[in-house]
Queue: 2 jobs
Job 1
Amino acid sequence: MLGPVILAASRSDRMRRLISAAPVTKQVVDRFIPGETVDDIVPIIKELTARGLELTMDVVGEDITRPDQAEAARDAYLGLVDRLKDLELGPKVEMSVKLSMFGQALDGGHELALANVRPVVEAATAIGTTVTLDAEDHTTLDSMFAIHEELRKDFPQTGCVIQAYLFRTEADARRLAANGSRVRLVKGAYKEPAEVAHQQKHEIDKAYVRILRTLMEGDGYPMIGSHDPRLISIAQELARRAGRKLDEYEFQMLYGIRGEEHLRLAAEGHRMRVYTAYGTDWYGYFMRRLAEKPANLRFFLRSMVSKG
């Protein structure tokens, strides 16, 4: 399987330098990350929302080694909130954050990440939108869930992400569904050991369906993070069986992947949210997109051959 190899490369400084220096890389990266600054991304926000889509914005960058970098990440999100306020789009554009960007891995990282993310969640709430805490590797999740629980005391719409390939996730989903959380379910995009995660695609898919059924039958708000046509159809059927209206769950897909499907689902009346990343520190995000889906890797390699 190429996925684990690509994920290993995502942590390699040598591979980062090699891929970043490739002439074709920028053109290909632009497919997934359409800008480096807030000013770059505003036209994308306007275009997608005008076409009936919603967004969740991610300021990419995870290699935080100092507290001042974590504060800079906080300030980048606060700057994004200011621009979203100017656009007056309210709940059509939310934000996704990785707590590693807010200092989670530093000394005292749990408290530091909570202190840095809280003003972002507070500012988002003030303009009528929400924040979702992205899941990272399994060693970070207890902290993420604890921060999620703490934030929901004051900001109950704060969402979180769970990953179907982890063994723990079925129990996490039952807890989150029972307490009415907003939950994005994804397959998972980190290299995890066999002791904690399913390794085979068919096992991950089966777990995804079991977990999604739990979310649909619970009291929360499910967010289906998948590009898989079969899982999208299953999600629609599970929603129907659970008696959910079209505004009681949503689909989420990545910018640059299956754009026509985004529009098709929105045209059918579904809430369709596009996960849109921007920023200069794109390497880790880009490599995980390649690892998630073989077609993304083929696209990249074809481009390198044709443009190189």
Job 2
Amino acid sequence: MTAPTKPPHSSSPASDHAGADAGVVGADLHAPVIHWFDDHARDLPWRRPEAGAWGVMVSEFMLQQTPVSRVLPVYEQWLARWPRPADLAAEAPGEAVRAWGRLGYPRRALRLHGAAVAITERHGGDVPSDHAQLLSLPGIGEYTAAAVASFAYGQRHAVLDTNVRRVFARAVRGVQYPPNATTAAERKLARALLPDDDSTAARWAAASMELGALVCTARNETCARCPIAAQCAWRLAGKPEHDGPPRRGQTYAGTDRQVRGKLLAVLREAHAPVPQAVLDRVWHEPVQRARALDGLVSDGLVEPLPDGLYRLPLT
């Protein structure tokens, strides 16, 4: 970028200034954040060269709404069992659900299996490097396509996860939190902040994500460790409190999600069809239990059989 270097001049969150703000501060942010990443990046298996594009893709599916500490053991087991997409594609989708374990949001397992099948059938078993081809795979959305293209293939894409969005909201926009859902203004800002060359842009994507994960966290941010604290619009504005829509919480206890998890846990442990009576024992409230089971069937995570039996899906 050739924009003049100076600190952010405004803490206004107005979306029509996003591109201008980025043009001013982008070059000032890249070097310190990337240098910080060089020194502080976690040694994660999907960041190692041997992980390959498939390892990166698996990690991106697993890390959605799930902390690294929970993903690591499942990721290692998954790659040991299915080191290539074709290995997973050859298995029944229910085996992906079984191996997903307690990661939560198990539809991700079915989507990853579907992506593996498509990669095997359309791309000769190799994760495509083309962004449009990635985006056309089952279960691959805007974020995952950009992340795989960037992290696996070193391409220049705006990779916007929750951590990156929070860093940009604070450092450039001067607000504590980004909107609940990604906006067009955030996408415009992220694109304007991208370094010009592919390799630096890919490094910037990983570095800004790590900064949000380790330093510029949702709570108890540690500005003393932040490489761009002196330029952060939110800090310079005195860290104003969030005044947007209420932040969405993630309740679990007593929800249908909890019941679904309990039902799936029984089916994952079983290697033969499970009678309805066994599933009935996992939750005391029959209406909620039936609703959760119906939802699992509707989502393709559970396959009903004659005589009141259930199993993980085979097709």
